[in-house]
Design a protein that fits this description.
Blueprint: H1 3-31, H2 36-52, H3 54-70, H4 75-81, H5 85-100, E1 108-113, E2 119-126, E3 129-134, H6 139-150, E4 154-158, H7 164-181, E5 188-190, H8 197-204, E6 212-216, H9 219-228, E7 241-245, H10 251-263, E8 272-278, H11 282-295, E9 299-302, H12 304-309, E10 314-315, H13 318-321, E11 329-335, H14 337-348, E12 353-357, H15 361-370, E13 375-378, E14 398-399, E15 407-408, E16 415-422
Parallel strand pairs: 3-4, 3-6, 4-5, 7-8, 7-12, 8-11, 9-10, 9-11, 12-13
Antiparallel strand pairs: 1-2, 2-16, 14-15
Helix pairs in contact: 1-8, 2-5, 2-7, 3-7, 5-6, 6-7, 10-11, 14-15
Length: 429
């Protein structure tokens, strides 16, 4: 295609994307005033539409899976992309769960009266228009759309090319729910092209219509969003999660937690990537736990002490401690107590999710107090780092930054606030 044609296509795409932004802004203005019952009706109707069109969703997903396999996507990425009856039902239930949550809009967070009689209230309100950019996970289409609607936000969804067929059908189900409830259908829109230029346009803000960008995907995608965005971004770059087996850990409990934390689903951001084992229990705990991992197909990469004690392990490099594998690989290091474990996590972690396994409450409290990760767990698999498991119905992402929202981002985190000030004629001297 020559340069003139490219410019013409780019201009047409920009016009289309800006129109989506304007339509989303108009829809958001109406949605923010919608009653809780209206939004809940839309979500329940969308859940019913997903169930009704299960065969169509599976057919579309089969097309996505075939194309992804031909492109050589990893097993973890294929697992993220794959839909089946169980996962479709989970999406539908997720929408219904979100509908049962308390409405996060219009909630009075605080209220006080000044000496001059001014009555001041801080009240939650929708953010406005959310731009959601994600890869290879069609369930994000349903989760993000539903959470944004519940929080009174319009959303523009830009799914990855790998999941385009699946996302189109799921978005159509969401729109059907909106229409049944009388909510503008432009409240949930899916970017209709896989052209990467559309992402750049969203990052620019679509002429000031986008209020926040939320990326959900691999490190390269999130890094690009954080580098290029001209609007606020809510994101986490990596999920380098740790499980620490303390000297007072129960072996049976530790083995079950570690194997689940690593191998239940290796491709999710809450999967444990590094295992730390206290030196005091190396003789009793190391081999049984690593045997449990290898029995499920996990590759072990350990420091010199681990390799000496477990010859099947490969020697880890410095890069391994920095790596989010998203695969059946785990790095293992021997540490000297809680302080050493905290030091390792603070040095190599991404402030996502960490777990200590122990029967010593004081050690657990020290671990939980000293780490500044978004989620810190005690005797529980890191795979619970999920909005649905937190009772949020679903999540739109997981924030590891320090501002606005940390951890699973649910409906409450998709609101901001405003101040309502009531007077009786006061003037400022």
């Amino acid at each position: 295609m020559n340069s003139v044609a490219l410019k013409k296509n780019h201009k047409a795409l920009r016009a289309e994307m800006c129109a989506m932004g304007e339509n989303a802004r108009k829809a958001a203005a109406q949605l923010r005033l919608s009653a809780a019952d209206t939004k809940n009706k839309a979500l329940d109707a969308a859940a019913a539409a997903i169930r009704l069109h299960e065969k169509e969703i599976l057919s579309a997903n089969a097309c996505d899976m075939e194309a992804a396999a031909s492109r050589g996507l990893s097993a973890a990425m294929l697992d993220r992309l794959k839909l089946n009856g169980k996962r479709i039902e989970a999406m539908a239930r997720g929408l219904e769960d979100i509908a049962t949550l308390a409405d996060p809009v219009g909630r009075e967070v605080a209220r006080w009266t000044r000496p001059n009689g001014l009555d001041i209230a801080r009240v939650t309100t929708p953010i406005g228009v959310i731009g959601m950019i994600y890869e290879s996970r069609p369930n994000v289409t349903a989760d993000a759309g539903a959470l944004c609607v519940k929080a009174g936000n319009a959303v523009i969804l830009r799914g990855g090319s790998e999941s385009m067929h699946s996302s189109r059908v799921l978005c159509a189900a969401l729109v059907a729910g909106l229409e049944e409830a009388g909510i503008p259908p432009d409240a949930v829109q899916l970017v209709p092209t896989t052209d990467r230029a559309a992402v750049g346009m969203m990052l620019e803000g679509l002429g000031g219509t986008v209020d926040m960008i939320i990326p959900r995907g691999g490190k390269s995608l999130v890094a690009r969003v954080q580098e290029e965005a001209r609007v606020p971004v809510l994101a986490h770059l990596e999920g380098i999660c740790h499980s620490y087996v303390h000297a007072e850990a129960d072996l049976t409990k530790a083995r079950a937690i570690v194997v689940n934390a690593k191998m239940r689903r290796t491709g999710i951001c809450g999967a444990t990537e590094t295992l730390l084992i206290d030196r005091d229990v190396v003789r009793t705990h190391l081999v049984p736990i690593l045997d449990g991992l290898t029995a499920t197909g996990c590759e072990i990469r350990g420091d010199k002490e681990v390799v000496n004690a477990y010859p099947a392990a490969k020697l880890a490099t410095e890069d391994d401690w920095h790596t989010e594998y998203l695969d059946s690989i785990i790095s293992v290091r021997i540490v000297d107590g809680v302080e050493d474990a905290v030091h390792h996590i603070s040095t190599y972690g991404s402030q996502h999710t960490e777990c200590i396994v122990t029967e010593d409450d004081k050690a657990a409290e020290k671990f939980m107090d000293e780490l500044d990760s978004a989620i810190v767990m005690y005797n529980a698999s890191t795979q619970f780092a999920d909005g649905g498991e937190f009772g949020m119905g679903a999540e739109i992402g997981l924030g590891t930054g320090k501002l606005h929202a940390r951890g699973p981002v649910g409906v409450e985190q998709l609101t901001t606030f405003k101040y309502l000030v009531r007077g009786s004629g006061q003037t400022r001297p």
